Amino acid sequence: GSPDDLLQLQSLTVSPDPPQPGRNLTIMASALVREEIEDGAYAHVLVKAGPIMVLSKQFDLCAEAEKANFSLLCPVKPGQYDIVHSVELPREVPFGKFTIQVQALAADDAPMFCLNAKVDFSPRVV
């Protein structure tokens, strides 16, 4: 991200790490919201498995937060936030290594935040 982004992501951790298909994934984040986030904020999400595009989609962040019963709903006032959210990962997630790119923008297209992550769903030997 940029120092000018509306949301400064200060930390992001997941548990379990690495994520496991068919289990809950808990996401813990700390962020500083510099300006109010209003309805209309959105994110472009790209997911690749190696060079192959698996997903390219735009999401309405406020609507998705509401559907997921997220603890923080729009409008989001400026301030410091610590967020914990759990989601159940489908058992059907294919094995492999994925690259995830998220570019979030405010309703007026101002840069909100960006995130690049690598997730490894390779089979585990126990």
From TrEMBL:
Keywords: Lipid transport, Signal, Transport. GO terms for molecular function: sterol binding. GO terms for biological process: intracellular sterol transport. Residues 1-119 form the MD-2-related lipid-recognition domain. PANTHER family: NIEMANN PICK TYPE C2 PROTEIN NPC2-RELATED, PHOSPHATIDYLGLYCEROL_PHOSPHATIDYLINOSITOL TRANSFER PROTEIN. Belongs to the NPC2 family. Monomer. This is Phosphatidylglycerol/phosphatidylinositol transfer protein. It comes from Botryobasidium botryosum (strain FD-172 SS1).
